[in-house]
Protein 1
Amino acid sequence: MAVKLMQGNEAIAKGAVAAGCRFYAGYPITPSTEVAEVLSRELPKVGGKFIQMEDEIASMAAIIGARVGGLKSMTATSGPGFSLMQENIGYAAMTEVPCVIVNVQRLGPSTGQPTAASQGDVMQARWGTHGDHPIIVLSPISVRHSFDLTIKAFDFSEKYRTPVILLTDEIIGHMREPVELPDFKTVKIFEHSVTEKPADYKAYRNGPGDVPPMAAFGTGYRYHITGLFHDEVGFPTQRLDEIDPWLERVNTKLTNHMDEIALYEEDYEDGAKVALLSYGCSARTARHAMKLARAQGQKVDLLSLFTIWPFPEKQVEALGDKVDRIVVPEMNRGQLALEVERIVGRKKVRRVGLANGEMVTPQMVLEKMGG
Amino acid sequence: MPNVVQQTQPAAPPPATAKKGPRGAVTIHATWCKGCRICVEFCPPKVLAMDESENYPHVAFPEKCTACHFCDTHCPDLAIVVRKLE
Amino acid sequence: MSQHILDAAALNQDEALIPKSGWFEQSETLQKLRKNKKFPTIWCPGCGIGVVMGALIRAIDHLGLKNDDVALVAGIGCTARMPVYMDFNTLHTTHGRALAFATGLKIARPDMKVIAIMGDGDALAIGGNHFIHAARRNLGITALVVNNSIYGMTGGQYSPTTPLGKRATTAPYGNVEPPFPVCDLAIAAGATYVARSTVYHALELDKFLAEAIAKDGFSLVEAVSYCHTTYGRLNKLGTAADMMRALKDNSISRTAFDAMSPEQKADNTKIVRGKFVDIDRPQYTAIYANLITRVQGGEK
C-alpha cells in the first residue's frame, strides 16, 4: 500500500480489519469516536458488521455475544465508557471469550477534559473489574504501532482466550503520521480449531495446555457459557475440586507465556547508570530526552514497554540490576511507577508524573535523570 | 433401594362391559419431584393424591386418568409424564 | 415408608442424572433437556419458572427447530437459570444484559433463533434500556419475560412490576412505585409481536412462544408467574398451588377484555391474556445484510 498520512485512531480501525475483526459495537465518546466512524465505513466492505449500541455496557456485551457467535469483535471507548464496560470485561475474562477493547485515554477523573490526553487508566485497565482475573494490556507509541499492536491484541485475545485492552491515549489516537500499511493478506491471527467430537467437547478443560480451543455457537458444539464459576463443560459449580484447577489455569495462562506476551523495546548502552522507562505517548518524551542526554555525552538506557499488563517483571528487574536510577515519565501521578518500584525498589525510581492534560516534557525528564 | 421411577402400569384391561379403562398412564419421577402439590390440587378427576407421608404425590386412582395432560404440563419440575393409551 | 419416598442419603449423586430407561423416553418434551446436567432444577418447589421451561421446550419442539439452531441467552436471576437445563447453545450473561449479548450473537448468526430469557427485574429494571432498544431495532430476538413481580433470587425485593402498595423485603410499608405495563412498553418501543399469558395457561404459553419464535423481528412473550417463597409469603397469598389458582381466577382473555365497556376496561384489575401485536417490520439483520450488499456493490 502507498504511504498515507493517517490518524492513530484510523490505524487502529484498519488494524482491526486486517486482523479479521468482523464485528464492532461501540458508543460515541471523545477521543475514540473516529475508530467507530472508520469501522462503520470499512466493515461492510469486507462483509463485517458495525452497530452503535445504546451505551458502553451494551457495547461490551454485544462484542462478547458476537464472538460467541463466531465473529472476531472489538469496541473502542475512553475513560467514562471504559468504567461502564468493566463488569462485562470481567465476564469475558471469566468465560474466556476473546475480544479487544480499545481505551483512548483522556484526562479524568469523571468528565475531566475530554480532548486532553492522559494515561490515568493504567490501574483501571488491570484492576477495573472485580475479582482476581487475567488480562492483557498493550500500549502503542505511534500511528503505525497502533496498527501493529491492534493486530497483536487480536492475536493474543484469540490465542489466550482473554479480553485484551489496547490502552492508547488522545495524543497517539488523534495525531497523524505518514504510514505505509502492509497488505492485509499477510496478517496472521491465531485461529481456534476444535478437534473433539461434540459429545466430548469441554469448553473449559484444564489441560493439556493452558488454553482449551473455543467452539462458536451454532457449529454443532452446543455448550453452556456462564459468568458463574463453572466446571470443565461450563456448568455452574461450587465444588473446590472443580474451581481450584480452573483458577490455577486461568490465573497463570498469561504469566506462563510472558516470553511471547511481553512486548518491549530496549535501547541500552554499556555502562549506563540511569535509565528511562515509559510507555504510550510518554515513551516518545523519554526517547527525545534520551537523544538529548546522549547528545550531551551522557550514557542512558531506554526501556519502552508495549505490554504493560501482565507487567514485564523479567525485563524491568534486569534493568534494575543494571542501573542505579530509573526515571518513569507518565501522564498520571505515578501508576506504572508503582509496578517499577515493586520490582526494583522505591529508592531507584524517579517518578515524573503529570495528570493535568499536559505532556511530560523532555526537560522534566532530564532534570530527574540528574539523581 | 425403592425403585426411583415410580411407574404405574395400568390395571389389566377390564372386561368389555365394565366402565371404559384409563386413557392415560401416569409416571412420576420421584427424584425430580419436590412435592409442591400442584399436580394433586389441580388434577381434574383427582387421580393423584399425596401419599401417607404427605410429602410426595402418587397415583391413587390410575383408572380415572383421562390423559388431559394438566399435571405434566404444569409440573414445575417436569417430573410427571402422561402417556396417552390408545 | 411409601414406595417412592427416597432416603436422601441413599440417593446416589448420579441418581439425579436422567435415568436411561422408561420414564424419560415417554415424553418428547424431556428429550430437549441436557442429558449431562444434574436434576432436579434449582428452583423452589412449585415455582412457575419450571412450567415456562416446559412451555418453551414444547414450543421449540413444535416448530421442529434443530437444537444447533437455537441459542438461549439469559441475564441473572431465578429465571436466568433456565437455559443451562436445556440442550441448546446457552449463554448465561450479566444482570440485565441478556438482550445486549443477544444482539451481538444475532448479528453474528442471523440464521439462528435467539431467545432472551429474563425475569421482570432482569429485563425491565437494570435491563430496561436494552429492552427498549432491542425492540426499537426490531432485532430478530424473542424476549421471554417471566414476570413474578419480585426479585426472587435475592430474597424478595420489589421490582418494576411489583404492584403499588404490595409488600417486599425492601417495601416493608408497601411499594410506593407504580409498575410497568410490560407489553405496552414493548409495543411502544416497536416490538412486532407481543403476547401475554400465565403459567396456569401453560398450553397458551406454548402457542404464543411458538408464534413469537417463528416471527422474523423482535417478539415479546410475557409469562406471568408467581413467587410464593418471597412475594407470596410477604403478601399472605398462600402456597404455590394457591398462587397458580389465583392466576386462573384473576385473568381474562383478550377477547373478553375487548368486549368490555370503556368504564369496565378502566376498572379492570385482571391480567389480560392474549396476543396484542403481530405485525411485520423490516428485521435489523436483513436491513444490514442489504447494506453490505449495497456497499460491496460499489455504493459510496
Note: Residues 43 and 78 of chain C are 7 Å apart (CA to CA).
Protein 2
Amino acid sequence: MFEARLLRSSILKKVLEAIKDLLTQATFDCDDNGIQLQAMDNSHVSLVSLTLRADGFDKYRCDRNISMGMNLGSMSKILKCAGDKDTVTIKAQDNADNVTFVFESPNQEKVSDYEMKLMNLDLEHLGIPETEYSCTIRMPSSEFARICRDLSQFGESMVISCTKEGVKFSATGDIGSANVKLAQTASIDKEEEAVVIEMEEPVTLTFACQYLNYFTKATSLSPQVQLSMSADVPLVVEYRIPDIGHIRYYLAPKIEEEDS
Amino acid sequence: MGILGLSKLIADIAPHAVKEMEIKNYFGRKIAIDASMSLYQFLIAVRSEGAQLVSVDGETTSHLMGTFYRTIRLVENGIKPVYVFDGKPPDMKAHQLNKRAERREEAEKELQKATEAGDTASVDKFNRRLVKVTKQHSEEAKQLLKLMGVPVVDAPCEAEAQCAALVKSGKVFAAATEDMDALTFGAPVLLRHLTFSEARKMPVQEFHLNNVLQGLELKQNEFIDLCILLGCDYCGSIRGVGPKRAIDLIRQHRTLDEVLKNIDTEKYQPPTDWDYERARSLFMEPEVADPKDIELKWTDPDEEGLVKFLCGDRQFNEERVRNGAKKLIKARTGTTQARLDGFFTLTTTPNSKRKAEEDKKNSAKKKTKTGGGGRGRKPK
C-alpha cells in the first residue's frame, strides 16, 4: 500500500507543469524516503531529477517500494481538476495497475477521486557522477526565467560565461546580439533577491535556449535557482522546493564541431 | 523486398525492440542511407498530378527533386547523411530479380489494357508498378549529392549490407532503409521511414538488433536462419511455414539443418536444391568494402554547381535551389548539441512486470496453432 498526502495540491501541480513539457512519461519511484523521478527527454539532451522527501508530506506511507509509470499528460489533466487549496492524496495498492488521486476541498465539503492507469515503462537510469563544479551561481529564479526568455528571441543558443566579475548571458542571431551581465550582489538584504557567485575557475559554455526555457517552467516552485557549471560537463539547474525537496535539470552543452 | 513479415513478427513478439521517434531526435547523428531504396521511394512519391517530374527532354527528375529536398530536411534536422549505392546484385538474387522482371512484364500488359480501357486509376497504379531505378538515376543522384557536399559510398554489392557494416564499425549511428535485411546483415540500429515525406507525419521507427534478438530469444546466427525461413531475397522458403511457425521451429531446433531433420518434409516441402547455406553465408559474410577504408567527409555545397546542374534543362527553380544551398551551409556552421549519454552512464532495465506479462502472452500464443496465412510478395 502506498499513500502520500499533501496539504496543498499546488506543489504537485507546479511540479507537473515543470516537467511535462520535457517528458511525456516517467516513472515515479516511491520508497520509505519519499518519491524520486529521474528521466531523460526523448533526444537524450536533458535529464530531470525530482526528489520529494517523505517528511515533506502531511502523511506518507510506503509499505513496499513501488515504481509507478505515469503518462504525464494524463496526470497533468487530472491535477488540473484539483483546486489550488485542495488537499491531494496519491494512493496505490502494491503491484497495482492503477493509481488514485483524491482531492479534498479545505472544508471537506467536496471530495473527488480520479483513477489513472499506470504504464509499464522501462527503467532508464543515468549514473550521475559526483561532480565538483567550477562555478555555482545562485540568483532569483524569476530573473533567470526573464533572461532565458529575452535571449531566446535572438538565437537558438545561449552562452553562459562565469568570471570573477560576474556572470554573462549572451545570444547572437539574425537580428543582432544580446548580452546580459549580472554582478554579485554587494549587500544581501533579502536572500531571495541576491545574486551569489562561487567560482574556482572561469567557465564558458553554450546551451540550447529551448531547453532552458523548459526548465524555467519550474520558476514558481522556488524563489531562487542555482546554476552549476564546469568545463565540458552538463549544466545543472536546481530549484529547491521549500520543505519538501528539489527538482534538478541536467543539460548537455553544445560543442564546437571538431571534424565536419 | 527484405525479409517477409519480419517487421510484423518483431512488432508482435518483441514490441520492446521498436521505438517510434521523431526525426529531430537524431540531430548530430551520422546515418547511412540505402540510396537505391530512397531513390525508388522518390520515383514513386515525388509526382505532380500523378506524373513524374521531367526535364525539357522528358528525362525523369523526380529522384533529384526528392534527393535534394529530403536531404536538406535531414541536414536541417542536424543529421549527417551518407548515401550508400548498390553495386552488382549477388548471383543468388538472380532468381528474385527474374521474378520481379516477370511482374514488370505483367504490369506492362495490364497497363496497356488499362490505357485502352481509359481507366485512369489503374493506369496510374500500373505506371507506378513499372518504376525502376536505373543506372542513370543513380549516377545523377550521386552527382547531385557530391555537389551538395554529402558523402557517397559505392557498395561492392548490396547497399543494406554495406550500411550494416558501417554501423557495426561505428562509423555511423544507424542504417536507414525500409529493407529489414539490414538487421539480418547485423546492423545494430535500423531506421525505417526516415526519408519519408514530412507531410505524411510518419514517425521514424528505430529497431535495435540486440533488443530484437533478446525479444525473439535468438542468437544472431539463429536469427539469420529465421530470416531465411521467413523468406529472403536469396533463396526460396518452405511452403506452408508462416511467420509463427518459423519462429517456433527455430526456437525449438535452433538451426535450419535441425529444422529440416525434424519436420515432416512431406507436409512442408522445402524447395528443391534449397541452397540456404549459401544464403546464410551471404548474410554472415556479405561482400562489403572495409569501413576502415571509407572516409566520410561532409563539405560545403557548391551553390553555383547546384544551380547549373538542377536549373536549366532540369527546370528547377533557381531561387529555391539557392535557398536550399544556403540552408545546407547554415546547418553546417555553428555548434552541435551534445547528448547526456556521453557524460553519464545509462542503464536500462526492462520493466520486470511487463516482461512477465509478455512471457505469459507468448507462451499462451505458442499453444494456439496458426497456419501459414496468406502470403504474397510485393515487387520491389
Note: The helical segments of chain A are 9-19, 72-80, 141-151, 209-215.
